Amino acid sequence: MNIIITGAGRGIGFETAHQFTIVKENNVIALSRNISELNKLASQFSKNKSCGKLFPVSIDLNKKGFEKALITFMLEHFKKVDILINNAGSLVNKRIEKLTANDFDLMFSVNAKAPFLLIQSLLPYFGQPSHIVNIGSMSGFQGSSKFPGLSLYSASKGAIGILTECLAGELKSKKISVNCLALGSVQTQMLAEAFPGYNAPVTPSGMAEFIVNFALSAHQVMNGKIVPVAFSTP
Ligand SMILES: NC(=O)c1ccc[n+]([C@@H]2O[C@H](COP(=O)([O-])OP(=O)(O)OC[C@H]3O[C@@H](n4cnc5c(N)ncnc54)[C@H](OP(=O)(O)O)[C@@H]3O)[C@@H](O)[C@H]2O)c1
Q1: Measuring from atom 23 of ligand 1, which residue has the nearest CA?
Q2: Taking the CA of residue 146 as centre, how many other CA atoms within 13 Å lie in the half-sphere pointing to its CB?
Q3: Alpha-helical segments (H) within the chain
Q4: What is the per-residue pLDDT across 80-90, written as a single tens digit (0 to 9) for each?
Q5: How far is the CA of 173 from the centre of ligand 1 (A)?
Q6: Is 139 within a domain?
Q7: Which ligand 1 atom minimizes the distance to the CA of 88?
Q8: Residue 105 confidence class, pLDDT cut points 50, 70, 90
Q9: 234 within domain boundaries
Q10: pTM of the complete model
Q11: 103 C-beta closer than 6 A to ligand 1
């Protein structure tokens, strides 16, 4: 399988890229700005013939034209995409009095606009069938408890959820499925920076295992869904 995952330099994305690459048949493009850990992982995998191939690429999703750079890189490694995981995320924890227009642009750019541009640019390359998994958040799930300081983050995650529902309908005829996972808290750097001292019930590798299995098979039974992946109700 040919897989592209964004936000793979650390946290949930790193673990997801790792778990996909363990499988020999997989070719994984792992995108982040900082790819130092990914490069180390790729060199370990390159020595193990029973694993797949990992191709790290340093790209800023907030930079104009990023999607062209990714397509150029992708075509050096494969011509068809089976799974795209839009996992990269940006979180600025500030109350409304402190939030700026730049904070708005950053979060909507990384969390909603970049996934849109990536899906749009990859349209000619998606296999039939293929699966796009957008990583949302419980904070952007309708009716969930909302936290002070996360208004724009949550709104941008709400946007990726609705984009998922819309694109699933549009892309159905091309056999491209689109689903969104609204994640609950996972113990990563993002969480630790936003909520110092909070202990999440799920590890990045535990969540990665769920994402990998979901990406491989959920499109056989669902499309256009925003799925809560959390202990909270909702
Ligand atoms: N952890 C949680 O509790 C939780 C809960 C709900 C949803 N989520 C979502 O799950 C996803 C993964 O989160 P995480 O907790 O693993 O966060 P993380 O540790 O902060 O990882 C986020 C990833 O996104 C990448 N990224 C951020 N801005 C980028 C940009 N402009 N261009 C390219 N890459 C960029 C970062 O890499 P670079 O800095 O190297 O670019 C990093 O690899 C995010 O979408 C997050 O919103 C997390």
Answers
A1: 7
A2: 15
A3: 11-21, 36-46, 66-75, 101-108, 114-122, 151-171, 189-194, 204-217
A4: 999 999 999 99
A5: 31
A6: yes
A7: 24
A8: very high
A9: no
A10: 0.98
A11: no
- Read off the pLDDT of each residue in 204-224 and give the average, rounded to a whole number: 98
Q: Is the CB of 17 under 6 A from ligand 1?
A: no
* % of the chain beyond a pLDDT of 70: 100
In the block, tokens 């909520």 appear at: 195
Q: Is residue 234 reached through a cis peptide bond, with omega within 30 degrees of 0 on the bond before it?
A: yes
**Share of residues in the chain with pLDDT > 90 (%):** 99
Binding site membership of 87 for ligand 1 (Cβ less than 6 Å) = yes
Residue type at 97 in one-letter notation:
E
Q: For residue 28, give its domain range.
A: 2-229
Number of domains in the chain: 1
Ligand 1 contact, 42 CB (< 6 A) = no
Mean pLDDT within 9-20:
98
Return the CATH number at 12.
Answer: 3.40.50.720
92 within ligand 1 shell (Cβ under 6 A)? no
Domain membership flag for residue 152: yes
- 2-6 and 126-137 as β-strands: parallel, antiparallel, unpaired? unpaired
Predicted pLDDT at 234: 79
Whose C-alpha lies nearest to ligand 1, atom 45? 89
pLDDT tens track for 151-175: 999 999 999 999 999 999 999 999 9
Task: Determine the angle formed by the axes of helices 11-21 and 36-46, rounding to 10 degrees.
Answer: 10
